[in-house]
Specification:
Blueprint: H1 7-18, E1 20-22, E2 26-28, H2 30-34, H3 39-52, E3 60-64, H4 67-79, E4 82-86, E5 98-104, E6 111-117, E7 126-134, H5 138-150, E8 153-163, H6 168-174, E9 179-188, E10 195-197
The structure holds guanosine-5'-monophosphate.
Amino acid sequence: MFFRGVNVDLLHEKIISDGKIFAGNILKVDSFLNHQIDVTFMEALGEEIARRFSSDGVTKVLTVEASGIAIAFPVAQSLGCDMIFAKKSQTKNLGSSVYSSPVESFTHGCVYDIRVAKEYLHDDDVVVIVDDFLANGNAVRGLIDIVSQAGATLAGVGIAIEKGFQDGGKKLRDDGIRLESMAIIDEMDAVDGEIVFRD
Ligand code: 5GP
């Protein structure tokens, strides 16, 4: 089980011990989320996100490839529903009947379309959007756009690590969107490596 105050501390500890801060406000946690996946820990983190949406009648968990999959999968498993990952490229097997939305990439500095096949998302779905990081909120906004194109209901957004010094989270909350972030970083310093979390 994942109890707030116990494993949230563990998430903070793992970010501090394993996180590497790069220029441009990018944090990499390659040892458990961004390259190697600590499956036991991700399962616990996913269970906690799922617990927060357990009474919302969620029917689909929606994320974007690739890093979102590692955290969205255990959320869906715990909620007992399917998980969809939006694709970042138009593959041949995706077909032409897709919802799509343009997203400005935080890490790559370009705009790409995310796509979800219409057959997997319907107007009677209740959706939780899940992602590894929240920065300016563009990826989440693109996913919200896809939920709305489908006419589905958005239960809320679950995030592993929110960078609270960027304004994506604030804007989502201001818009009345339910946002559950497992860790919120208020400050991080690439020079001395210091990371300050919100309580
Ligand atoms: P946003 O769209 O909110 O600006 O950025 C969120 C997306 O960019 C996430 O899907 C995530 O993969 C990536 N991202 C943003 N900031 C970081 C970061 O500091 N570290 C990593 N690893 N990914 C990030």
